[in-house]
Design goal:
The protein is an alpha+beta fold. Helix content is 41%, strand content 20%. The chain folds into 2 domains: 3-75, no CATH class; 90-142, Beta Barrel (OB fold (Dihydrolipoamide Acetyltransferase, E2P)), CATH 2.40.50. The longest helix has 27 residues, at 49-75.
Length: 147
């Protein structure tokens, strides 16, 4: 395969990762592997097709295994001593939510499924406290004191 095809493929993969999907850095490292294969071929290293694909696969796996998790943790707040938790935070509720009821709330720029785990109805427009995060679902309770 021509060297420029590897470079274009690498740039496309990296662009898709940055602009089209939630950045988890899989396509970035696959793209870097393709770029390196293209650069190697552009400086005169001639390889048969099977060796190009094998080299590309090995580079992509090595980058993902040894560098992806470290980079992802650094960029997503996983550095030592940093604890990122939504528990105790507050969200606005856009509809009445009965005890055990489910709704969608906006938190940190995205919509989350929220379940009212409290014993009281959370009124539309009021604040709710996040009591637990369970995967992509948050559990909320009313912050207003009963009268």
């Amino acid at each position: 395969m021509a060297w420029w095809i590897w470079i274009v493929a690498g740039l496309v993969l990296m662009g898709v990762e940055i602009f089209a999907v939630d950045t988890a850095f899989y396509l970035i490292f696959i793209g870097v592997a393709a770029l390196l294969m293209g650069f190697a071929m552009s400086v005169g290293i001639e390889l048969p097709m099977w060796a190009q694909w094998t080299g590309f696969a090995v580079l992509a796996l090595v980058f993902m295994v040894f560098f992806r998790e470290k980079l992802y943790a650094k960029l997503r707040g996983g550095v030592v001593g940093f604890q990122d938790t939504a528990i105790g935070g507050r969200v606005s509720v856009e509809e009445d939510v009965a005890p055990g009821g489910e709704t969608r709330v906006k938190m940190r720029g995205t919509k989350w499924t929220a379940i009212n785990t409290g014993s009281r109805v959370i009124a539309k427009g009021s604040q709710a406290e996040i009591t637990e995060v369970d995967g992509l679902t948050i559990k909320i309770a009313s912050v207003e004191t009963p009268t």
